[in-house]
Design brief:
CATH superfamily: Regulatory factor, effector binding domain
CATH topology: Multidrug-efflux Transporter 1 Regulator Bmrr, Chain A
Helix content: 10-25%
Radius of gyration: 15 Å
Number of helices: 2
Strand content: 35-45%
CATH architecture: Alpha-Beta Barrel
Distance between the termini: 28 Å
Largest sheet: 9 strands, antiparallel
């Protein structure tokens, strides 16, 4: 698959998430638990969502990945009364971005393409990458319609 990659300025987003270290092979089932739990908490607390679900990958140590999966929210809460739920931010600044179209199993190709593009264009990675799930699989069950924004924060060389 060919990817159109560009630098896109990102606004800081408050991020409500659950963090887990999981085997790469268990990532889909972990998301199936983490995202609904974060969503349920946000709704129960009356939080306003500020975009589609996201996941940030803070550590790649195959065969395991540390992932933060959750939702951008409008305002950071003063406290969180839940053992697993955390609040952080997705940073502002430039990011190398592309849209992956298709099943999630192909997302690693998008990440590899963005990493190569960053190196080829003289940028430096400035933080962990994240994904934004632009389509909801429950609304679009055929993976051919799925779109995922892949973001890698960068600094120019």
């Amino acid at each position: 698959m060919s990817y159109d990659i560009k630098i896109d300025p990102q606004d800081e987003k408050v991020f409500l998430y659950i963090e887990r270290r999981v085997a790469q092979s268990d990532l889909a089932s972990a998301f199936g638990e983490m995202l609904p739990a974060a969503y349920s908490y946000a709704m129960a607390e009356g939080m306003t969502l500020k975009g589609p679900p996201c996941a940030r990958y803070t550590e790649f140590a195959p065969p395991h990945i540390t992932v933060q999966a959750g939702l951008p929210i409008a305002v950071a809460p003063t406290s969180v009364d839940h053992d697993e739920i955390k609040v952080g931010t997705l940073p502002s600044g430039d990011a190398a971005v592309t849209v992956h179209r298709g099943a999630y199993e192909g997302l690693s190709d998008a990440h590899k393409a963005v990493e190569a593009w960053i190196a080829e264009h003289g940028h430096t990675v400035s933080g962990p990458p994240w994904e934004v799930y632009l389509t909801d699989p429950s609304e679009f069950p055929n993976p051919v319609h799925w779109q995922t924004l892949v973001c890698w924060p960068v600094q120019s060389a």
